[in-house]
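## Example pair
The file below holds two records. Each record gives the amino-acid sequence first, followed by its structure token line.
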Amino acid sequence: LAAERDDIRRQEFQASLRDDFIGDGSEFVVLDETSKNERTYARHYGRAPRGQRAQLTDVFVRGDRYSLCAAMTVEGYIAARAIEGSFDGQEFYDFVVEEVVSLYLPHMTPFPGERSVLVLDNCRIHHNEALVEAVEAAG
């Protein structure tokens, strides 16, 4: 068992999943980013007979990188932003604040309504206390 595991908090969380959610996924807004360049599809691993090295050859391309960040629901995407280069913490913050929880065109609603739970992975650029404050301030 994990040293930080708390069985009581775990049971409370499981109860909240049963009691606080509709059950069809309409509460969730999932956010993720991806990027693409000319090398995205290049192989990084290969197989070879025992005792031999796999030879991986590819044309070296130093090209432009494009990144996309999208917010999606069970109905489809609600907001997206594409940039040249990679998303950093500030770009990600701006996207969430300006296009997902914007006060002018809000795509989210207060909990426990539809589109009220923002789901992110553990990417380093998501670790931003100002982002947490902005999302909570938007309701």
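Second record, same layout:
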Amino acid sequence: RWLFNQAVCTLYAFCGVLFGLCSLTSLTVLSTVCCLKVCYPAYGRCWDALSDRSSCPTPAAPAMSRGAWPHRQCWSYGPEPYGTACCITWKASSREATIYILALFIFCYLLPCLLILVSYSLILWTVRVSRRAIRQH
């Protein structure tokens, strides 16, 4: 069972959600920047102004992560089904909770994952096309 009070449960769940979303946001930004630098070098140079190291343009990721979830009061947290930890209350008891869960899934999981998949697919395609061009010469 959860050993602490509801306030600690809420803090624990909030931190889990926030750090998970920040991690996925950082990976999404990194894959997008890598895609720009490899597939569209002219556009990829704009990220160099954000970093002294052109191969590691990660300062944009924390800025996007900070803006990802500014309204934590709207969330409902509680014990997980087994009761050993806390997380978002996934069993939607209201219309707002259902909308929140759907928005969380679509905008914070599905779209970032699709963007990462598309970015790395474009990188692989660009590398494959470049390798064929080099073989022909």
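Notes on the second record: Residues 95-136 form the longest helix (42 residues). Strands lie at 77-79, 86-88.
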